[in-house]
């Protein structure tokens, strides 16, 4: 055995491509262990002793504090080239390479790979390192809702992960939230049932109703409560064509719900295509194909929302595409009462400078408030939950009871 071959046999390599999420996890893990330099350059913390590198590149990060102040950090990350690091007592070589000649076809991002090489006897450090890197990435998002939007043909997290909204804070009419939640949970627990019968493992929901009734808020809160992400898709977005849409829908990140808002606005009628001067380049039939084309064994949960369900083509809302449709309506007296109690019955409410309500007073005002709402509804007038929220934010409980009547609008039933 030649020396080179012997060396080769004694080494083990792992290649990670930037198509794979592990690539970002690993780089984030590595940069976490390298030097931090403050914006003024004054506080250079030396790199971890076990890290040897001469080809660092800079990543700028903004740290926002709770009190609103912020500072900018430059983080030194391992740039393209060769680096050495010691992990759990074993040395390994990290080679980061960028393919300069070709780029990812649609997104224009260059291909990159990192190759980790260690001694064969240390091979078990790779899975350990990767799972540590993954856990670190996940911890950063723990308790948060991640919203992804299309970035060319890929999904990328949009903005910072948001704080999860408690499901109970979205007040729907009796039984609606529970019904949708139970349906989603039942679906997510039945993968095998679908597989055994060869049925595509997908489920579609349509939430319809007037603006400000909580459609988006509810879907986001539900996703958060199940530790799912949201993939937010705007069908009317320029440049989104049928082939891209199919690709996007069949390549959603794991554990994510697809949310397509105002689905009526993209195609009011089946005939509306680019040829008719409509801006969207997604065709209605392309959209149906994209919804249907779920790869076998893959899970897909799609939520559609609309203010105008009557404008939707029956082909879109047939079972298989929309399996459960629910109406989220303007405020009912009961919803109004519950939202009132939620606002004025909490510690936060009373600390805003409003009078502190004891429970009897709170319930009395809430009942009075619900009565006003009921009377107005009987007169054919309506108010959205969003309008009630706005009123509660700017008024005390007693002012809200007095002022709510003026906010009702005449709306088609
Ligand atoms: N049922 C509800 N319970 C609690 N808050 C609500 C409810 N409905 C609306 N809101 C509040 O109103 C605002 C708008 O709600 P949201 O965007 O979810 O409404 P929507 O039905 O999706 O509206 P649109 O049809 O215009 O997209 C949010 O700040 C939300 O907190």
User: How would you sum up the major sheet?
Assistant: 7 strands, mixed
Strand content: 25-35%
Strand order of the largest sheet: 11-10-14-15-16-13-17
**Would you report the number of β strands?**
19
Backbone structural class: alpha/beta
Poorly predicted regions:
35-50, 64-69, 268-273
**What's the total helix number?**
14
Mean pLDDT: 81
The CATH fourth-level homologous superfamily of the largest domain: P-loop containing nucleotide triphosphate hydrolases
What is the overall silhouette? elongated
How many domains? 3
Question: Distance between the terminal alpha carbons, to the nearest Å?
Answer: 85 Å
Helix content: 25-40%
CATH-assigned fold name of the largest domain: Rossmann fold
Give the ligands present. Answer: adenosine-5'-triphosphate
Structure description:
With 413 residues, this protein is an alpha/beta fold. It folds into 3 domains: 3-142, no CATH class; 162-327, P-loop containing nucleotide triphosphate hydrolases (Rossmann fold), CATH 3.40.50.300; 333-410, no CATH class. Helix content is 35%, strand content 26%. The protein contains 14 helices and 19 strands. The strands form 5 sheets. A 7-stranded mixed beta sheet has the order 11-10-14-15-16-13-17, with helices on both faces. Helix 7 (242-249) links the parallel strand 14 and strand 15 (256-260). Helix 10 (333-344) runs antiparallel to helix 12. The chain is elongated, with a radius of gyration of 27 Å. It starts with a helix and ends with a strand. 29% of the residues are buried. The structure holds adenosine-5'-triphosphate (ATP). The site of adenosine-5'-triphosphate has 16 residues, from helix 6 and helix 13.
């Amino acid at each position: 055995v030649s020396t080179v071959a012997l060396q080769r046999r004694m080494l083990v390599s792992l290649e990670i491509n930037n198509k794979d999420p592990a690539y970002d996890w690993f780089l984030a893990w590595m940069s976490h262990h390298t030097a931090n330099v403050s914006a003024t350059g004054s506080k250079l913390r030396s790199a971890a002793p076990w890290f040897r590198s001469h080809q660092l590149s800079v990543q700028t990060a903004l740290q926002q504090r709770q009190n609103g102040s912020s500072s900018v950090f430059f983080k030194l990350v391992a740039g393209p080239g060769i680096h050495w690091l010691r992990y759990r007592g074993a040395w390994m070589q990290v080679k980061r390479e960028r393919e300069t000649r070709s780029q990812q076809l649609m997104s224009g991002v260059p291909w990159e790979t990192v190759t980790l090489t260690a001694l064969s006897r240390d091979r078990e450090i790779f899975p350990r390192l990767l799972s540590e890197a993954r856990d670190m990435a996940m911890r950063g998002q723990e308790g948060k809702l991640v919203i992804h939007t299309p970035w060319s043909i890929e999904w990328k997290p949009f903005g910072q992960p948001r704080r999860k909204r408690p499901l109970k804070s979205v007040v729907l009419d009796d039984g609606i939230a529970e019904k949708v939640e139970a349906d989603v949970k039942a679906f997510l627990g039945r993968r095998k049932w679908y597989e055994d019968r060869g049925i595509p493992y997908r489920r579609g929901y349509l939430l319809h109703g007037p603006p400000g009734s909580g459609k988006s808020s509810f879907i986001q809160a539900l996703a958060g409560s199940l530790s799912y992400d949201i993939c937010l898709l705007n069908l009317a977005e320029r440049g989104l064509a049928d082939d891209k849409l199919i690709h996007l829908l069949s390549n959603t990140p794991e554990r994510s719900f697809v949310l397509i808002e105002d689905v009526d606005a993209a195609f009011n009628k089946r005939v509306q295509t680019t040829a008719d001067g409509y801006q969207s380049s997604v065709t209605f039939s392309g959209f149906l194909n994209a919804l249907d084309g779920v790869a076998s064994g893959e899970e897909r949960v799609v939520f559609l929302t609309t203010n105008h369900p009557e404008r939707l083509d029956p082909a879109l809302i047939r079972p298989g595409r929309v399996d459960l449709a629910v109406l989220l309506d303007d405020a009912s007296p009961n919803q109004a009462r519950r939202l009132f109690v939620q606002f004025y019955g909490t510690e936060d409410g009373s600390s805003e400078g409003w009078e502190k309500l004891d429970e009897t007073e709170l319930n009395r005002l809430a009942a009075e408030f619900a009565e006003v709402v009921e009377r107005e509804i009987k007169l054919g007038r309506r108010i959205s939950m969003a309008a009630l929220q706005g009123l509660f934010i700017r008024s005390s409980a007693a002012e809200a009871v007095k002022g709510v009547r003026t906010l009702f609008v005449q709306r088609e039933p």
